[in-house]
Write a structure and sequence with these properties.
Blueprint lengths: L6 H8 L11 H20 L1 H27 L6 H14 L4 E6 L3 E6 L13 H18 L1 E8 L8 E6 L4 H5 L3 E4 L2
Antiparallel strand pairs: 1-2, 2-4, 3-4, 3-5
Helix pairs in contact: 2-3, 3-5, 4-5
Length: about 180
């Protein structure tokens, strides 16, 4: 600090970012914030209630994104292939690594090699509800029905995810664990 510097100048100098190594940047901060928020919700109200709160937020996110994909495809309603590609694209844009394993008139099966939440997802299965709700809402808005079954998830310790989204109320869909979604 220069001799004769005012208090105001000294405070301004203190506003500069430190030139030290701290493993913090916006993306990591927001993922950690979400992890702590969902963890706190799970601890205070339980996993089921926390999942309900998170589901409401995710539904709003899906309702925000779904029209953008229909507009991008220039269609009133996306078909199963367009929905599958939209879901993969959505996750790629937030640094997930989803890919299509299967796409038929009855179901869409997606695999995933990298969670958008990174290591922050481990042990936080309520994060997976975000995938379920966004996938289910977008799919149901275009097909009328969706049931999302999270067969494998990174959050539960698997090396990847396998998400099956049923497009019709079939016996296979009825037998699978998961959450059903319907269009408005």
């Amino acid at each position: 600090m220069a001799e004769g510097a005012t208090e105001k100048q000294r405070v301004a100098d203190d506003d500069e970012p430190l030139k030290i190594s701290v493993p913090l940047e916006r993306d990591l901060f927001l993922r950690r914030l979400l992890r702590e928020l969902t963890g706190s919700l799970e601890e205070v109200v339980g996993l089921e209630e926390a999942s309900g709160f998170i589901s409401l937020v995710d539904q709003h996110i899906a309702e925000w994104l779904e029209p953008a994909y229909r507009e991008a495809y220039r269609v009133e309603v996306m078909d199963a292939g367009q929905v599958a590609r939209a879901l993969v694209d959505l996750k790629a844009r937030i640094q997930g690594d989803f890919y299509i394993e299967e796409c038929t008139p009855e179901r869409i099966v997606l695999g995933n090699r990298a969670c958008p939440f990174g290591e922050q997802v481990l042990g936080r299965t309520s994060h997976c509800l975000m995938t379920s709700t966004v996938f289910g809402t977008i799919t149901a808005e275009n097909t009328g029905y969706a049931k999302v079954s999270l067969e494998d998830t990174i959050a539960r310790g698997s090396s990847g995810c396998r998400v099956v989204t049923f497009l019709q109320e079939t016996p296979d869909a009825g037998a699978a664990p998961g959450i059903e979604y319907f269009s408005d």
